[in-house]
Design a protein that fits this description.
single chain, about 200 residues, mainly alpha, Arc Repressor Mutant, subunit A, Tetracycline Repressor, domain 2, 2 domains, 10 helices, elongated
């Protein structure tokens, strides 16, 4: 099936953003790769930031639909958690370190505000999931949920530091290490594989 011009723009922009980050990618480059004119680009998007926010929001909404299905399933908590982690790893496996660095770039104020809203939504989603699990006895009842969420937020904040990013070859490895350390600590665990 042939893609519409809008779909061509979105597909090529996504490939470029994930590989190079969004700061280095120009509208001209997106148009060239999409084989559309600038006029066509502006028919659908007011600017590059609008396209970035549209694509990221679409990706997040698709992920939340999958996460919600996992959480509502009859699986045991540990299986739900593993499936959620695998989904998170799958959704971030193609992100470049450049993309992550751009997310935390203080010069991108409009995008920073947008991404912070997504993070807030994600943290609320995770808090609700963990709170429910703790009430059911699936999480250590002695751990403060506020503490868990605080540590998760600090880990997210660290993702934008050059020091942390330089420790990992790619965004997928960073995501896996960070997530495993928060969920499992330093105890040996079953290796999480991308499914």
């Amino acid at each position: 099936m042939k893609l519409t011009k809008k779909e061509q723009i979105e597909q090529k922009a996504l490939e470029l953003f994930w590989k190079h980050g969004f700061k280095k990618v120009s509208i001209d480059e997106i148009c060239k790769k999409s084989t559309v004119s600038r006029k066509t680009f502006y028919t659908f998007y007011g600017n590059k930031n609008a396209l970035i926010m549209y694509l990221y929001n679409k990706m997040v909404n698709e992920a939340y639909a999958i996460y919600e299905g996992i959480i509502q399933s009859d699986l045991a908590f540990s299986e739900k958690l593993e499936k959620l982690l695998n989904q998170k790893l799958e959704s971030t496996k193609n992100l470049s370190m450049e993309f992550i660095a751009d997310l935390y770039n203080p010069d991108a104020s409009e995008l920073t505000t947008f991404f912070n809203g997504i993070i807030d939504q994600s943290m609320k989603f995770m808090r609700d999931f963990l709170s429910d699990a703790q009430k059911k006895g699936d999480i250590n009842p002695d751990l403060s949920l506020d503490y868990i969420m605080f540590m998760m937020q600090k880990a997210i904040d660290l993702c934008g530091t050059q020091e942390l990013m330089s420790m990992f070859p790619d965004a997928g490895t960073l995501t896996r290490q960070l997530t495993q350390s928060i969920i499992y600590g330093i105890m040996p665990v079953k290796i999480i594989h991308n499914s």
